[in-house]
Specification:
14 helices, five-stranded mixed beta sheet, 390 residues, seven-stranded mixed beta sheet, Aspartate Aminotransferase, domain 2, 2 domains, binds pyridoxal-5'-phosphate, Aspartate Aminotransferase, domain 1
Length: 390
């Protein structure tokens, strides 16, 4: 049944379990398996005649609560939780595709997703084609008779480009394809892809969902029939989220809304400051009116998110110099943390690509990505200001 409560209430009051101790906060169920009353109970449980926990690779009260919360927040029928975001991405594709199938994916996808599509899936005769984020009129022509899935992230990493979810959903519907959106940068609070017609929404829970840089996790929510396939695949292959991490993540969701409000407020202030700096060629943030897809961002997102990207005049060298000059802000590959983090993709995460490949993925030489944290905004801006002056 659809949960009609407010977003924050769903995040806080969705409690699927309570023991005889009547604890207020959900306890941890650190157990690998569950016992049966008798032989008939065991038979009926395995036959799926009753819904109950059997083994924590299949389900566990902590993971079920986490999944239920995310499903409620996104208006989804069902979901499944994974040990990492990549386990969620991999298992979703693997559960839904067969040899000979084709994926149409946005070019700007997470690094490991790119590796999955270009290095591993071809081994099993699953092919893919990239479409360019900024040329929607070219997308439809790339659909092949064997295309099964359209895949995209919005906002994209690291360029924070925005893709039109309604347009993607229209295309998917017309050609009877499954639309999967990696909603990691937006979180369920800022964007609910299923409401625009997506079939599945995937998250790395490692990022803003945890929000404090502690645990890894992943989750997919959406259409019940697709989740059933993903569940059966995962039940047998074992990428399940640990109960401990599920407990941490479920607690984190209770504060997602207030944390995201501040991430977004800080990011917008930072982006507005950066736009005025002479040493910066351009700034991209979805809720800056200068963003090329500002109107689409406004239509499908509640606020602009925590990630800001900008281009330093002076290319690769300027990017490295900027990172070295930072005093408080962390140099880390993570994002969506309470701590502000800076990365320079051209010299780090994407250094193995050729310059041409980088440019095609929107990674210009002086591109810096900032995941705006929850420190006092004046301190964040001050650190960046002094680094720009060096
Ligand atoms: C981090 C990330 C992933 C992978 O998540 P892990 O939890 O690190 O496995 C997938 N997609 C996006 C957009 C990400 O930022």
């Amino acid at each position: 049944m659809e949960n009609k409560k407010g977003f924050e209430t769903k995040a806080i009051r969705t409690q699927t379990e309570r023991t005889d101790f009547l604890e207020h906060s959900v306890p941890m169920y650190l157990t690998s398996s569950f016992v049966f009353e008798d032989a008939e109970d065991m038979r009926a449980s395995f036959a799926e005649e009753k819904q109950r926990n059997i083994y924590s690779r299949f389900s566990n009260p902590n993971t079920s609560e986490f999944v239920q919360k995310v499903a409620d927040m996104e208006g989804a029928e069902d979901g499944f939780a994974f040990a990492t975001g990549m386990a969620a991405v991999y298992s979703t594709f693997a559960a839904l595709l067969s040899s000979g199938d084709h994926i149409l994916s946005a070019r700007a996808v997470f690094g490991s997703t790119h590796t999955l599509l270009t290095k591993y899936f071809p081994k099993w005769n699953i092919t893919s084609t990239y479409f360019d984020t900024n040329q929607p009129d070219t997308w439809e022509a790339l659909i092949q008779p064997n295309t099964k899935i359209i895949y995209a992230e919005t906002p994209t990493n690291p360029g924070v480009d925005i893709l039109d979810l309604s347009l993607l959903a229209q295309l998917a519907k017309k050609h009877n394809l499954i639309l999967i959106i990696d909603n990691c940068f937006a979180t369920p609070y800022l964007q609910q892809p299923l409401k625009f017609g997506a079939d599945l929404s995937i998250h790395s829970a490692t990022k803003f969902m945890d929000g404090q840089g502690r645990v890894l996790g992943g989750v997919v929510v959406g259409r019940k029939d697709l989740i059933r396939e993903i569940y059966l695949f995962s039940r047998n292959t074992g990428p399940a989220l640990s109960p401990f991490n599920a407990w941490v993540l479920s607690k984190s969701l209770e504060t997602l809304a207030v944390r995201m409000d501040r991430h977004c407020e800080n990011a917008l202030k930072l982006a507005s400051f950066l736009e005025k700096q002479e040493t910066i060629a351009w700034v991209k943030y979805p809720f800056l009116p200068s963003h090329p897809q500002y109107a689409i961002a406004k239509k499908q997102m509640k606020a602009g998110g925590g990630v800001v990207s900008f281009e330093l005049r002076g290319g690769i060298e300027a990017g490295r110099k900027f990172l070295d000059a930072l005093q408080m802000i962390s140099l880390s590959a993570n994002l969506g943390d309470t701590r502000t983090i800076a990365t320079h993709p051209a010299s780090t995460t994407h250094s193995k690509l050729t310059e041409e490949e980088r440019l095609a993925a929107g990674i210009t030489p002086g591109l810096v990505r900032i995941s705006t944290g929850l420190e006092t905004i004046e301190d964040i801006i001050h650190d960046i200001e002094q680094a720009l002056l060096k």
